[in-house]
Amino acid sequence: MDKPHILVIDNDEGFGMMLQEGLQQSGLYTSNWVQTGKQSVQALHQENYDLVIIDMGLPDAPPGALIQAIRKANNGIKIMVIPMMGQAVPDAIMELKIDGILTKPFFVGDLPELIDKAMDRAPRSPVLPPPQTPAEAEPSPELAPEPAQPVNAAQPVTSSAPPPPSASSISSDTLRYLRANESEIVRLLDDLNREVRAEAILLIAGGELIAQAGMLGQEQCQDLTGLISQSADAAAQAATFLGEPAGRFVQSLHEGEAYRLYSLSLSEGIQLSLALGSNVPLGMIRHQCRLVSEKLTRFII
User: Fold this and answer.
1) I want to staple 144 with a disulfide (CB 3.0 to 4.6 A). Which of 75, 170, 193, 235 is the partner?
2) Stated pTM of the model
3) pLDDT in tens, 194-240
4) Which domains can be identified in the chain, with CATH numbers?
5) DSSP-assigned states of every residue in the chain
């Protein structure tokens, strides 16, 4: 049986990409994402979709009119709506006989049950790739050089390497201000952790661990900080060698079968790093980190 083909319609780039990737990575569906009502109608004329998921906050199309236009393009299509945060679906929309409601916030793991219910399908389990033997395994694509050593949270590694050169560019005032606001920074990292459920979330400045959240303890986070700082130093040298204008990579990703290590540079020598399961959609990670980074930048002086 072919996988259901789903169209996500959401003008929020981060959320739209996260939802589209979550559907795709479940192994149960194929999916596309568009940002406007006009693009959705065009997409429905170009491809055959089984379900559309419509955000109620689209700025270019009243949801009722869009639902009617979609049904005119494909009368048999199933329709789910995403209501505005904290609001119920209006009675006028319910009267159009929609098939499902996707309420924010939600967990990606809940999608198959909600979607199969909307499509009148029996619930199914996610399709997992077959296990690979070491001989079959292939290296995953990456956005930055691999660390000099593998990260293994179960076996802490103490690093005696000096901090990266960028540490010297961080003013003592910035470090003091970051430390003085540690409790507020921890609150922001905890908020991020509720969204992505990470093993560890670290704010690192000049090779020093400023704040942490997640499941790992203080000692393990300190060890992980040392390894990440070494990797950031090597990546900065590579960026300079390649002529990257900022002299650093803004984002880096190291991806394994079970875990991801994602880092976002907030400024020179300061980065937000996450160690988390590989099942968390990359679009969601990027979106949530971008939101938190905007709040963290006020502590960088």
Assistant:
1) 235
2) 0.50
3) 888 899 999 999 999 999 999 888 999 999 999 998 888 888 888 88
4) 5-118 (3.40.50.2300), 165-299 (3.30.450.30)
5) -PPPEEEEE-S-HHHHHHHHHHHHHTTS-EEEEESSHHHHHHHHHHS--SEEEEETT-TTS-HHHHHHHHHHH-TT-EEEEEPPTT-PPPHHHHTT---EE-PSS--GGGHHHHHHHHTT-------PPPP--TTT--PPP-SSPPPSS---TTS-----PPPPGGGGGS-HHHHHHHHHTHHHHHHHHHHHHHHH--SEEEEEETTEEEEEEESS-HHHHHHHHHHHHHHHHHHHHHHHHHT-TTSS-SEEEEE-SSEEEEEEEEETTEEEEEEEETTS-HHHHHHHHHHHHHHHGGG--
